[in-house]
């Protein structure tokens, strides 16, 4: 990020240059010197800014769907929003989460590989308390899940995958499926420790309880569809494809639409007095040479150039030229 100087810093810099304490030529040399950027191979950059933006858009929709889903299930105030989307090594993600947490390990065909939806214990136990008839408060001391609690937690988080499916449908039709539920991160090894992952962090508030839900997607899982995460594919995919029957019906209706067609002989300007004095046989001069074709308009757009004539004692116009799109101004006064 570029540093922005305050007004005091700018004044001090100008004063130093004026007094000779700093040399402008030296500053120029420093500016032209090659800048070296440190690159950590353990934190390989696999996702471009474009990819991160696309993932952010997808999971902002996911957060909205989750808010609706959990609000309906828990019947209380729920607010979920995307806080951050970043890339980091898988090992760093494992070390950053609590030793006892809720880890929903799942797959999403046709993507190959496993992903993780990690739910902070405060959030998970608040949901559990609410579902079992409580006010939705997390316990002071987090303990291991009982068998009944595990079943309840699994049931509610299986429903979140429908929201994930809806959020991803603009990119790919996926079928998420819960594979296992773990509570100890050390027993979960879905990729190698140095593998780069995309980590989507969702801030979650349930009543008065707050916590994080983290979605971990390894780069190796997304690699086959990386081109689809580009901005170009995102905007192209927003265009709705019409069914052949719908296109045929639309063409049929358009073909029957009526449009006014006007052939202009020309135009002229006269005074009101001259108009009132017109008699049969008078001639009005037009602002157009006689060898110039008639302008034929469809609606108010110039589309053709033609010649006047008659067919079976009726006035007619013969089309001589089709005006290309964008050339109308050539025939305007």
UniProtKB/TrEMBL annotation:
Keywords: Bacterial flagellum, Cell membrane, Cell projection, Chemotaxis, Cilium, Flagellar rotation, Flagellum, Membrane. It holds the Pfam family FliMN_C. Residues 253-323 form the Flagellar motor switch protein FliN-like C-terminal domain. It comes from the Bacteria. The keyword Phosphoprotein does not apply. One of its GO terms (cellular component) is plasma membrane. GO terms for molecular function: cytoskeletal motor activity. GO terms for biological process: bacterial-type flagellum-dependent swarming motility; positive chemotaxis. InterPro entries: CheC-like_sf (IPR028976), Flag_FliM (IPR001689), FliN-like_C (IPR001543), SpoA-like_sf (IPR036429). Its main location: other. It is a peripheral membrane protein. It is found in: Bacterial flagellum basal body; Cell membrane. Gene3D superfamilies: CheC-like, SpoA-like. Belongs to the FliM family. This is Flagellar motor switch protein FliM. The gene is fliM.
